[in-house]
Specification:
alpha+beta; single chain; 338 residues; 36% strand; 5-stranded antiparallel sheet; binds adenosine-5'-triphosphate
Length: 338
């Protein structure tokens, strides 16, 4: 089912939580809404669900204007971070609950469907356990099975793995991605975790202050961040004070292309992996402040000529010590006007 938001705005009292958002989510895609806390992700999801209604704009499910359709008639399945399972019901009963409420299936059919869904979420055999007898990750898989039980045309997931530890989250997102390939239901996934969005989604929609600031595939948004906000939000970014002159950004003697940018003050951004440490040669002069050893690299903290403290990832076996002077060789960078 394709979902379209057309110029949707939502204000709470005087606070504009979502402003003029237009977004098409093609059928069968897994799209992540990514943004800092308060950027409007949950409000957008709740409007798609029918839990909130926009002040302005329309929401379409396929060709149908769903803006004023009630939640139970939208055919959406949800999983929320804190959408707790019913503690007094077994895993199977939790999954069966929505099917029973909807009617139309016999008891035996419901039992059979619950068993199938347990298998889909790879929890075969755990149907008789109670929620407090399974792990947090397993509980969220049960919550997903419960959402799938009503055969939704749209799945809405709001930080579903937010309360779990990092290793479990990583496993669950790989698992969810595989499940989506098997069952490509149109899915909107809200997260403030960049890595989660980039790992999981076909497309990432980045929000800030209630508006979309960029959308694209994970490759597009990471390679061509549209603004300094996106550059900084998607991962560690070093910034150097620069001056643009004649289509080139200048940091001291170092120059980097800045086609199309007007002359004036700017910042050059480079990620830690886009800087290499060299004894000499073209680059930005710097001095090593600290070397932090990581399992698969060395993180060098250095002070650049202009005074900025920057970080770069050096190879594991690079011989480098505090106080050493050299240059930061830049392999990739983005320049944004100030
Ligand atoms: N019912 C409400 N009444 C008043 N303000 C609200 C309400 N719901 C949300 N807001 C405000 O709207 C803004 C957007 O909230 P929303 O929950 O959509 O953000 P979010 O990006 O999902 O944030 P988080 O990651 O913290 O959940 C926030 O500033 C929030 O305080």
């Amino acid at each position: 089912m394709k979902i379209s938001l057309q110029a949707v705005t939502k204000t709470f009292e005087t606070f504009r939580a979502v402003h003029d958002v237009s977004l098409d989510i093609e059928s069968g895609r897994l799209v992540a809404l990514l943004g800092p806390s308060g950027s409007g992700k949950t409000t957008i999801l709740r409007m798609v669900a029918g839990l909130e209604f926009p002040d302005r704009g329309r929401i379409f499910f396929g060709r149908e204007d769903a803006t004023d359709i009630a939640i139970r008639d939208r055919g959406v399945g949800f999983v929320f971070q804190h959408y707790a399972l019913f503690p007094h019901m077994s895993v199977s009963q939790n999954i069966a609950f929505g099917m029973e409420a909807r009617g139309g299936r016999s008891k035996a059919q419901i039992r059979e469907r619950a068993r199938e869904l347990l298998s889909v979420v790879r929890l075969d055999g755990l149907g008789d356990r109670y929620p407090n007898q399974i792990s947090g990750g397993q509980r969220q898989r049960v919550a997903l099975a419960r959402a799938l039980a009503v055969d939704p045309s749209v799945l809405l997931l709001d930080e579903p793995f937010g309360a779990l530890d990092a290793a479990v989250r990583r496993d669950l997102r790989r698992w969810l991605r595989e499940l989506h390939e098997e069952m490509p239901i149109t899915t909107l996934f809200v997260t403030h975790d960049q890595e989660e969005a980039l790992d999981l989604a076909d497309e990432v929609v980045i929000l800030d202050q209630g508006g979309i600031v960029q959308r694209g595939t994970p490759e597009e948004v990471t390679r061509r961040p549209a603004s300094r906000f996106v550059m900084g939000f998607l991962g560690d970014a070093n910034s150097f004070s620069a001056t643009v002159e004649g289509g080139q950004a200048r940091v001291g003697e170092f120059r980097w292309p800045a086609p199309g940018l007007a002359d004036g003050p700017a910042d050059l951004f480079a990620r830690p992996r886009d800087l290499d440490w060299a004894k000499a040669g073209p680059g930005i002069p710097a001095r090593v402040l600290r070397v932090l050893d990581r399992p698969d690299s060395r993180r060098v903290v250095a002070q650049a000529q202009g005074g900025e403290t920057v970080e770069l990832d050096a190879p594991f076996d690079l011989a480098i010590a505090r106080g050493e002077e050299g240059v930061l060789a830049v392999s990739r960078a983005q320049v944004f006007a100030r």
